[in-house]
């Protein structure tokens, strides 16, 4: 792949769809409700593991397995929210980080007959792939495999439907209350609204959407491994949301596509500049083996500059929400 096709490929893969859905869930939590959830990886993990284990270990149908993952996400939201949502926002942030790491360690070390430890769960994609209508001999676009294209044909329309749902619900009376809680929950409470209940509903809704991202990512990778759902998962999803602009329906999609395209472009460019017999970048400064970390450093620098000069993100509205005002 070259500097053009590689960013296009990475921007639309099943993995990208998984992060888009995780970022949409975070947009409900953080952008609209003002909830500091640093454990979105946990929702994606319980969704993916719930579906994978239900099929691989218990031979449940795909639809039932998806329901298992969604119920697991709801239960996780209750575990996170019940003890924290009546307290300050930073308590939820602490709990979500802790729960995400606890779950990752549980999936890595316990119930190995189901979670398969660090080997991960596999063998659950057969029922989904059997529905693939694409011909076996088709020429793939941008070197996507037939199975990846099938996940994308399902995943991106699913993203569109969820975005339409978010657009509608945030313009409903429920959405207006949630956004009011973000601005001043004491004022909302004085009007007789149950702030705790609305926060819990927002946490559940965003968590369920994150679990759907776990489904898509698991089907795309054909496996579920605990290290795929570490803290980096949540922080990358947050980066995508901040890049696009919080409290905007389309911002998670725009942020995710830009993020993956930029990351891939930098990786390809730096690899080319540091490779060969006479590299443009001398090995004393950078080798091809260091490109993976350095490209993240450049993206981090770009995010810092964005926060300084445009804290509402590329497409956000500073009048509605600004990250530096929290």
What's the quick description here?
The protein is an all-alpha fold and 326 residues long. It has 13 helices and 2 strands; from the N terminus they run ααααααβααααβααα.
Describe this structure in words.
The protein has 326 residues and is an all-alpha fold. It has a single domain, classed as ABC transporter involved in vitamin B12 uptake, BtuC (Orthogonal Bundle), CATH 1.10.3470. It contains 13 helices and 2 strands, in the order ααααααβααααβααα. A two-stranded antiparallel sheet has the order 1-2. α2 crosses α11. It is globular.
Please estimate the helix content.
Answer: 55-70%
> What is the name of the CATH topology?
ABC transporter involved in vitamin B12 uptake, BtuC
- The CATH class assignment is Mainly Alpha
Q: How many strands, what sense, and barrel or not for the largest sheet?
A: 2 strands, antiparallel
Number of strands: 2
Examine the secondary-structure arrangement and name the CATH architecture.
Orthogonal Bundle
- Gap from first CA to last CA: 42 Å
Run of helices and strands = HHHHHHEHHHHEHHH
Task: Average the pLDDT over all residues and give the rounded result.
Answer: 90
Number of domains: 1
Q: How many whole angstroms does the radius of gyration measure?
A: 20 Å
Structural class: mainly alpha
Counted by DSSP, the helix tally is: 13
Low-confidence stretches: 322-326
Q: State which percent range the strand residues make up.
A: under 5%
Spatial order of the strands forming the largest sheet? 1-2
Shape: globular
Name its key features:
326 residues; mainly alpha; ABC transporter involved in vitamin B12 uptake, BtuC; 67% helix
């Amino acid at each position: 792949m070259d500097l053009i096709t590689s960013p296009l490929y990475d921007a639309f893969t099943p993995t990208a769809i998984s992060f888009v859905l995780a970022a949409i869930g975070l947009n409900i939590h953080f952008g609209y409700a003002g909830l500091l959830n640093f454990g979105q990886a946990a929702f994606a993990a319980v969704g993916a593991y719930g579906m994978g284990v239900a099929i691989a270990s218990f031979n449940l149908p795909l639809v039932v397995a998806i329901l298992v993952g969604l119920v697991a996400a709801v239960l996780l939201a209750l575990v996170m929210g019940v003890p924290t949502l009546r307290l300050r926002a930073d308590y939820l942030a602490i709990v979500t980080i802790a729960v995400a790491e606890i779950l990752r360690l549980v999936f890595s070390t316990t119930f190995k007959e189901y979670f398969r430890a660090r080997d991960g769960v596999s063998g659950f994609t057969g029922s989904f792939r059997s529905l693939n209508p694409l011909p076996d001999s088709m020429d793939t676009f941008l070197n996507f495999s037939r199975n990846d294209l099938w996940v994308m044909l399902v995943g991106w329309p699913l993203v569109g439907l969820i975005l339409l749902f978010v657009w509608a619900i945030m313009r409903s009376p429920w959405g207006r209350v949630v956004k009011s809680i973000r601005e001043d929950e004491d004022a909302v409470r004085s009007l007789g609204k149950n702030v705790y209940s609305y926060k819990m509903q927002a946490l559940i809704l965003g968590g369920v959407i994150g679990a759907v991202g776990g489904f898509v990512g698991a089907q795309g990778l054909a496996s579920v491994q605990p290290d795929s759902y570490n803290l980096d998962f949540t922080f990358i999803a947050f980066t995508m949301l901040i890049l696009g602009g919080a409290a905007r329906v389309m911002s998670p999609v725009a942020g995710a596509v830009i993020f993956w395209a930029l990351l891939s472009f930098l990786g390809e460019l730096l690899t080319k500049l540091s490779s060969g017999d006479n590299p443009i970048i001398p090995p004393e400064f950078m080798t091809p083996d260091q490109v993976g970390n350095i490209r993240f450093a450049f993206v981090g620098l770009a995010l810092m500059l964005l926060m300084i000069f445009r804290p509402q993100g590329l497409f956000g509205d500073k009048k509605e929400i600004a990250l530096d005002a929290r």
